[in-house]
TrEMBL record:
Any Pfam family: dCMP_cyt_deam_1
Name used for this protein in its record: Deoxycytidylate deaminase
Entry EC number(s): 3.5.4.12
Residue intervals of the CMP/dCMP-type deaminase domain: 27-165
First-tier enzyme category under EC: hydrolase
Cofactor(s) required for function per UniProt: Zn(2+)
Originating organism: Mugilogobius chulae (yellowstripe goby)
Organism lineage: Eukaryota, Metazoa, Chordata, Craniata, Vertebrata
Length: 193
């Protein structure tokens, strides 16, 4: 472990403060979860924005999705409510979950052996898709519907099919995307770029 003095000396030897690599770069799991969360910002759902990001064994993103109405179905004409006297006036019969869209949007031949990063623990319908698509691991952030029958069924299916699932514990609570940062040199970017 270098002391601060030694680090300063190293900077002097190198003649510039930006020759050491950044230490606060995003690690892969944070990056993929952040991609899922960024994608969720595309959602038109007023109550729930969920994103999913599928990654292969080479840490390459092969699919991204967020919750929304099916392609070609006008999301101004379909309902977004969670409750209504008639179930047909709620979003549930129509909306595609982020996991479904991420799998369908894949840019690879298949997603076998991949990991899915998703904001919410997948429901039982998405668990079926994940299993059938050959995804081997699910990394989720929130499990807020843990005690519902849908989530219980989901865990039962994922466990039986041998799909691993684990909760992501972020080291930071937020990641800020600052479009102005590219115009500034300093700690967040390399001035030589
Ligand atoms: Zn689902």
């Amino acid at each position: 472990m270098e002391t601060e003095h030694e680090q300063n000396k190293l900077c002097l030897v190198n003649g510039n403060n930006n020759t050491r690599k950044r230490q606060d770069f995003l690690e892969w799991p944070e990056y993929f979860m952040a991609v899922a969360f960024l994608s969720a910002q595309r959602s038109k759902d007023p109550n729930s924005q969920v994103g999913a990001c599928i990654v292969n064994q080479e840490n390459k993103i092969v699919g991204i999705g967020y919750n929304g109405m099916p392609n070609g179905c006008n999301d101004d004409l379909l309902p977004w409510s969670r409750t209504a006297d008639d179930q047909l006036d709620t979003k549930y019969p129509y909306v595609c979950h982020a996991e479904l869209n991420a799998i369908m949007n894949k840019n690879s031949a298949d997603v076998k052996g991949c990991t899915m990063y998703v904001a919410l623990f997948p429901c039982n319908e998405c668990a079926k898709l994940i299993i059938q698509a050959g995804i081997k691991e699910v990394v989720y952030l929130s499990d807020k519907y843990h005690d519902t029958p849908g989530m219980t069924a989901s865990r039962r299916l994922l466990n039986m099919a041998g799909v691993l699932f684990r909760q992501f514990e972020p080291k930071r609570t937020e990641i800020v995307i600052d479009f102005n940062s590219i115009n500034h040199t300093g700690s967040r970017s390399n001035s030589s770029q």
